[in-house]
Structure formats: C-alpha cells, structure tokens
Amino acid sequence: MTPTYDFHGQVALITGAASGMGLATARAFAEAGAAVVLADLDERAVQHAAEGLAAAGHRAVGVVCDVTDEEQAAAMVDRAVATYGRLDMAFNNAGVQAPPSDAADETAADFDRVNAVNLRGVWAAQKHELRRMRQQDGGGAIVNCSSLGGLVGLPERAAYHASKHGVIGLTRSAAVEYAPRGIRINAVCPGVIDTPMVAGMLEGQAEAMAEIMKQQPIGRLGRPDEIAAAVLWLCSPAASFVVGVALPVDGGYTTH
C-alpha cells in the first residue's frame, strides 16, 4: 500500500528541484496538496519544472538560487513566504559530486566546491528556513539530504564524504535545538539513485560504480520517487516523534 498524505494549506520548499530527487519530491508534495517552491541554480530547468506542475493543476513556483550564496538562500525563503504566506516544510537537497581522487591528491578547489554546495548550502538554507519557521504557528519540518556517503567511508571519496558527514552533524545539532520549538529536523541518506548525477557517474566511473553496486543488496538502482516517499514521511504527522535521524534509503548498502 502506498501511503497518502494531506498537505493542503501547507507550503514546501525544495532545493535542487529541477531534476532527480528534488523534482520527484516537489511533485510528491504537490500531489499531496502542498504549494511548492522549487529552487535550483538552473533557471531554465527549474522554471520548466514549476510550469509543468502548475499546468497539472498544482500551486508551484520556480526560484533561481545558488545555495552557496547565503543572500540568495535568504531571498529564496523570502520568495516562498511572499508567494504563499508561510513555510511549513523544506527538503534541502541541492548537491554536487566531487571527482574521485586519491586523498593525497585532492585539490583544495574540489574540496571547497563540494563543501560549499553540499554542506554550506544546506547550512544556509536551513538557517533561513528556521528563521521563518520559528516565527509562525505550527512549527515546521526540515529534511536535509545527506547520503550513504554520510554514513560510511569509501576510497577516493574523502571530500564528498566529508561534506555528507557534515550534513548529519548539522542536522542532529539543529534538531536538538529546535525540537522543543515544534520544528523537526532530520536527514535522509540516499544510496545509489537513478538520477542525472548518478548517470554521469555510471558513464564516467564505470568500474568504481560497479563495485559500489555490488554492495547494494537489493540489486538495483533506487528511484527518485523512493527518496521522495521518505522525505514526505519525515515531514508528515506519521513521523511526529522522529527527530534528528539520518535515515538510510539505500537498498541495504549501509547494513554491511
């Protein structure tokens, strides 16, 4: 049975929403009745995604945002509130990969870039989402996107995994701080999901990806809608007692 949720009267913000897990989650929120704000660095893609949801009868708006720029993250939240009057839920999903590298050879530029998006970007988005949520009745729910890379270590992935481990620390500390104020914060840790980012990795790093797939007991790639389902559950009343978790959605990868 597929669970259903009623998010009518609520507003959800999703970063990295132009494709992949972000778009699947925006669509799922919209189909559950929420007004959705889709944010992404790719202006054409995010506007196309928002227009597609609006054409299907949903309330949706696209916002261009570079989450590495705190002012843009603040403006993104302001736009959500200006458009729909409040902010109830957020999925901080925007992220990038770092090229595989021996830990002794990783460049500072690669380290800074992946952490700017994956960790600082989540920090900036969460910061300004919390500033809004703490002012309004009803609290809120935030889900930050970590990764199986936030739970394990793998060769040639040090910078990327550092960023994703950092998301879990950020999530847990903020969750403890804001749970008494009625705002629940959790993280989701996707495994290898069939997204444009993973498609590029499968093509460019076929040997490494084949090894990773051997460790995924379910024997297939995950689907973006499977991550969306986890995010909606974490934001729903069904997860009302769930605070500060890093939820693996990884086909069993991290059970090893």
UniProtKB/TrEMBL annotation:
<dbReference type="Pfam" id="PF13561">
    <property type="entry name" value="adh_short_C2"/>
</dbReference>
<comment type="similarity">
    <text>Belongs to the short-chain dehydrogenases/reductases (SDR) family.</text>
</comment>
<keyword id="KW-0520">NAD</keyword>
<protein>
    <submittedName>
        <fullName>SDR family NAD(P)-dependent oxidoreductase</fullName>
    </submittedName>
</protein>
<feature type="domain" description="Ketoreductase">
    <location>
        <begin position="10"/>
        <end position="191"/>
    </location>
</feature>
<dbReference type="InterPro" id="IPR002347">
    <property type="entry name" value="SDR_fam"/>
</dbReference>
<dbReference type="InterPro" id="IPR057326">
    <property type="entry name" value="KR_dom"/>
</dbReference>
<keyword id="KW-0560">Oxidoreductase</keyword>
<dbReference type="InterPro" id="IPR036291">
    <property type="entry name" value="NAD(P)-bd_dom_sf"/>
</dbReference>
<dbReference type="GO" id="GO:0016491">
    <property type="term" value="F:oxidoreductase activity"/>
</dbReference>
